[in-house]
Write a structure and sequence with these properties.
The chain is an alpha+beta fold and 214 residues long. Helices cover 31% and strands 29% of the residues.
Length: 214
Amino acid sequence: MRCFIGLDLSATEKLALDSWRQQALPEIMPRQWLKNATAGSRKHGKQQSESQGPALPYALPAANFHITLSFLGEISHRQHEALTYELDQLISEPFSLTLDATGLWNGPKILFAAPSNTPKALSELAKLSRKAARKASIQVESREYKPHVTVVRKATSTLPLPLYSPNVDVHVSAFHLFESVSTPQGVTYPIRQSWPLKHNMSVREKLRRGITDE
């Protein structure tokens, strides 16, 4: 199966980010809307080449919003078992971040929301997840980790800049193994396994800070 290790956003956080996208990039429509608009244009005799359709930028569904920690690609059953064992051993603490910046990557042609300040705990968790994958004999990239949430695909430099920056607070209390599944309606990212993040401190210190792991 085709997988990645990542962080999920809560329903509230996804809706907040999607609301920002709709207001800051009002000209960007969901993929299905584009398909319907294209079909309508052809039905009424308007000319539009096949090459133009796929090049139009489109908004990702809010349900697909996530932050990748480590992309794994296709993994075998044996690699999956080994990875599960390694991730069971991983220890990291909960943390929070704020999606308050945007960027455009010309290579993958995506527009994304990102934290202007990456929490140390997030960078460490990404590092540990890559280490776990390598121990499971899975090849992962070694370039600098840049956390982000993709909000628009097929984005190019001609895409208008967002009218304003997002400001979405995200609390992270677990990480997950996602599978990338292609469907007639588009790609979905179901969670296959989850691991909670826990504060690595004494019970007394937790009580002093008012922290619970629930």
